[in-house]
Amino acid sequence: MAQDAGWGGGAYGGAPYGGPPGPPGWGGWGGGWVPPKPGVVPLGPMRLGDVMGGAFATVGRYGKQLLGVGAAAYGGALAVVLTAAAIAYSAVADHLDRILSLGSDEDPRAEDWVPLLIAFSSVALVALIATVISTALMYTAVPAVLQEAVLGRPTTFSTVWRRAWSRMPAVVGTVLLTWLIVLVPILLAWIGFVAIVIAAVSTDGGGQVAVILIGVLGALATAPLATWLWVKFSLAPSVVVFESQGPIGALRRSSRLVRGDWWRIFGITLLAGAVAGFAGYLIQIPFSLLGTFSGMLGTVNLGDDPNPAAVIAAVSGYVLSIMVGQLISQLVVATFPPLVTGLLYVDRRIRTEDLGPVLAEAAAVPPQYTE
Questions:
Q1: pTM value > 0.90
Q2: Distance between CA atoms of 51 and 65, rounded to whole angstroms?
Q3: 363 near 7, Cβ under 8 Å?
């Protein structure tokens, strides 16, 4: 795993995090040495094409492992949310019927809408927790696959799954800590701007417009800070898996690796997100069309005053189709950008710590020399 390939920085004679440049006598890839390519990327400084091509190659060669973990993670999350929604509906069905049967001049009673609010909040909380766990599993599974893909070694679903579960809590902590670091300064700045405006102007119409304007300007002013912090710590999940570090250590490590190459990492990461988002959108289109057609067929036989159960049954085909499309789209969105980020992590260690020869020796690939 991580340590036997030198990912932790101490294997094969190298000091932790960039000591002597690779095995004795190799001296890096200078002097005409050609970086070998035992896996999905060459073991030398990567260009944009190498990073993007390596991400696509990983999907092609290790698609079963990646999509298997993703399907299990997001499929399990979807099943949990649907189960929670079914339990919540069965608990508040009578209250929902009474609220839906109210006339336009009638107000719902507290004993009816409060249980609905509690049920909805509970389902939303379950959905949030399930999404965080499934996303963290993908953030962990992708580097676990890359550890073998970079060296050209096979791996199995069970190996990736065990590795993902073992590092998932640390990845969750890293992601939440990153969000906290990014969002807290922005929220404090925005609250401060609004407080200043409220203290300076009245709360009439002009004052409300000023508050909105300051809020927009505050968001624009703090967006560069948020983006800078986001890129600065973007390699932290990969560090957690590759080097088995904790959240705080991973954030510090990511900051050191990103230093000096911020703009390049920002651009490539942004491009990966755009590619994944566009692919996800294309995937959703046929499912949306199928769901719309199914929903139209289901509502044809509804009467003038259908009950909630009939409405839910009529639109179930539409909802199911949309959910399947979202699930498949999420697999793409949750897989491709982390692959690119993981390869950027490898690239930064190759550039700053001369990791290429170490990985080549781990892959048992001798260097080639060109005249």
A1: no
A2: 20
A3: no
- 308 to each of 26, 46, 108, 298, how far by Cα in Å? 72, 57, 17, 14
Copy the structure tokens of residue 46. Answer: 């990567």
Q: Residue 369: its pLDDT value, please?
A: 53
Phi first, then psi, for residue 277 (nearest 5°) are -65, -40
Q: Count other C-beta atoms under 10 Å from residue 178's C-beta.
A: 21
Q: How far apart are CA 313 and CA 301, in angstroms?
A: 11
User: Mean pLDDT in runs of 10 for the chain (371 residues)?
Assistant: 53 37 44 79 94 95 92 89 89 78 70 84 91 90 94 93 92 91 75 64 56 63 84 95 94 96 96 93 86 63 56 66 81 91 96 90 69 50
Q: How far apart are CA 75 and CA 83, in angstroms?
A: 12
Which phi and psi (to 5°) does residue 33 adopt? Answer: -70, 135
Q: For residue 277, which amino acid is it?
A: G
Q: 């991400």: which residue's tokens?
A: 55
Residue in 147, 86, 71, 155 with CA at minimum distance from that of residue 119: 86
Whole-angstrom Cα distance, residue 159 to residue 199? 59
- Residue 76, CB-side half-sphere exposure with 13 Å CA sphere: 13
Q: Exposure pattern of 185-204 as b/e (b: 16+ CB <10 Å)? A: ebeeebeebbeebeeeeeee
Name the token pair of 159. 């190996």
Let me know: does 32 contact 368? Beta carbons within 8 Å. no
Structure tokens at 237: 């999940």
C-alpha torsion 359→262→237→39, nearest 10: -30
Q: How far is 125 from 353, CA to CA, in rounded Å?
A: 43
Q: Is 167 exposed, middle or buried (0-12, 13-18, 19+ CB in 10 A)?
A: buried
Residue 80's CB is within 10 A of a number of other CB atoms, namely: 16
Q: Please state, in angstroms and rounded to a whole number, the distance separating the CA atoms of residues 115 and 112.
A: 6
- Assign 239 to helix, strand or coil: helix
C-alpha to C-alpha distance for 120 and 89, rounded to whole angstroms? 9
Q: Quick one: which of 293, 289, 291 has its CA closest to 318?
A: 291
